[in-house]
Each structure stands twice: as C-alpha cells, then as structure tokens.
Amino acid sequence: MGNRNTLVFIHGLESTAHGTKGRFFACHFPGMVIEDFTGDFSTRMKKLQKLLENKNNLILVGSSYGGLMAVQYAMEHEGKIKKLILLAPALNLPEFQRKPGKKLKVPAIIYHGKNDDVVDPGEVKNIADEIFVRYEYRLVEDDHPLHKTFKKIRWSELLETV
Predict the structure, then answer these.
(1) What is the mean pLDDT of residues 108-113?
(2) DSSP for residue 152
(3) Which distant-in-sequence residues (6+ apart) come within 8 Å of 34 by Cβ?
(4) pTM over 0.90
C-alpha cells in the first residue's frame, strides 16, 4: 500500500470542494482528497499541511488559487510529490513565496485558457519557466475556469494510480 498514489484536489479562492470541479472529481475519483479551504493563504496552507502530513506519492490538482497552494506545498515538500496538475494557477500573486534558485523537479502540467481575464497566462508561463525543471504548458482556447477544456482532459490518464 506504500506505493499507492494519493490524489488531492485543491479548489480556487472563491470556490469550494462542492464546486463543479470538486463534484466531478468526487464522482469520478471517489478516493480523492477533496476538502474545503477558507481564510487567508496562511490558514489555507496550514490546513493543507495538516491534511497531507501522513500522505506520500501525492498527485496534486490545483485550480487557480489552489494551483498556487499546490506549488507552494511542493516547494516545501517536494519529496512527497509525484506530479502537479495545475489549472490556471495563480502563481502571479504575492502570496507565492518563491525560494531563490529553487527549481521543482517534479513533473507538472499546466492548463491555461488564452482568454483568462483573472490570471494572466503569459505571467504564469514566465513564472513556470523559472520554477519548474520539467513541465508541460497547455495554452487552450478557453477562459479562467476552463469551462470548455476541463471535462475533455483525460483525467484517468493524468491521475493514473500505478
């Protein structure tokens, strides 16, 4: 059982675990960790740390602010992470505490809508270039919530629990 992946979904700032994405994951990946996060960044991060303290082989899916949380967590606990899947991650916010010279070696996939009017895709791409050693950046014809793209993503492949 030590090899099993732990799937985790982290919702955005104004969403909940019961939003569209949270409900999708709960339905299609019943073992996935899906929690509500409220409060400021520090409060949310403390809850995430506590939630994941005894878990390993993490595949974190973070949406917007949740993407920022996932990357921040990975910066501090890289050895516990197997993969990051980031949906329009808000990496351009001041809450992101980058460690100078620190680059994440875990694989990451970023989906970002060209028409995102909440989080600038270009800024996120530039930040991703600085912080990831290996990642895929998928700029898609979509908006911030990825309304058109989200359900077309091959989630079973991305979240495979080998």
Answers:
(1) 98
(2) G
(3) 8, 9, 11, 17, 22, 25, 26
(4) yes
